TrEMBL record:
SMART domains found in the cross-reference section: HTH_LUXR, REC
PROSITE patterns, per the entry: HTH_LUXR_1, HTH_LUXR_2, RESPONSE_REGULATORY
Residues the record lists as 4-aspartylphosphate modifications: 54
GO MF terms, alphabetically ordered: DNA binding
Record's protein name: Two-component system response regulator
Signal peptide stretch: none
Record organism: Amycolatopsis decaplanina DSM 44594
Keyword Phosphoprotein recorded: yes
Response regulatory domain sequence ranges: 3-119
GO BP term, example: regulation of DNA-templated transcription
Length: 216
């Protein structure tokens, strides 16, 4: 079962998410919270694989909660929830360690599938959304220079894999494209996350966009 915690300061939103996710045989909502402090407590208590996290909440907000959760041992995948499909606040959440983001208007059938994607350790972020978010960043030019410097130390094959992460591809898709074993791709990704000081695939994918490795 995929254990999920939902976090939103509006009880109706939490109830809606519980109803949608509860309709899936392989997903169980094990807890909910109404602010960031409660969210961290719920993660420690229930040990979910996925957290759906509202970003704007009174008290401890979602961004602070994501930062705290990312520092826990074996943290879950945190997916930021927003009412906007391109939001500068989301950029901060992704850089803090979120695995991706979803707009609250996401269709129910898509929400279930994306929770499964997050549980498998993959990016919940379309390349188009990543491009929009990077373009919105006020310090985009400086970040682009920093990203290119970071990626200079990668091998050619590592750079290819990183570009694929920027496209949101899974390990299996990357293996097929680059004619590599899936285990080899997994090894490349793990090594690159350390080299690039990225917390997860989503951060690495954003870095690929910032460095100009992803074709527009």
């Amino acid at each position: 079962m995929i254990r999920v915690v939902v976090v939103d300061d509006e009880p109706m939103v939490c109830a809606h998410l519980r109803t949608i996710l509860g309709s899936a045989d392989d997903i169980e909502v094990v807890g909910q919270a109404q602010d960031g402090a409660e969210a961290v407590e719920a993660v420690v208590r229930h040990k979910p694989r996925v957290v759906l996290m509202d970003l704007r909440m009174p008290g401890v907000d979602g961004l602070t909660a994501i930062e705290r959760i990312a520092k826990l041992p074996e943290p879950p995948a945190v997916v930021a929830l927003t009412t906007f499909d391109a939001d500068t606040y989301v950029i901060r959440a992704l850089r803090a360690g979120a695995a991706g983001f979803l707009v609250k208007s996401t269709p129910p059938e898509d929400l279930i599938g994306l929770v499964r994607v997050a549980a498998d350790g993959h990016t919940v972020l379309s390349p188009e959304a990543a491009q929009r978010l990077v373009a919105m960043s006020a310090d985009g030019r400086r970040r682009g220079d920093d990203a290119r410097r970071k990626t200079e130390g990668l091998t050619e094959r590592e750079t290819d894999v990183l570009a694929c992460l920027g496209e949101g591809l899974s390990n299996a898709d990357i293996a097929a494209r680059l004619h590599l074993a899936e285990a080899t791709v997994k090894s490349y990704v793990s090594r690159m996350l350390v080299k690039l000081d990225c917390a997860n695939r989503t951060q690495a994918g954003l870095l690929a966009h910032e460095a100009g490795l992803v074709k527009r």
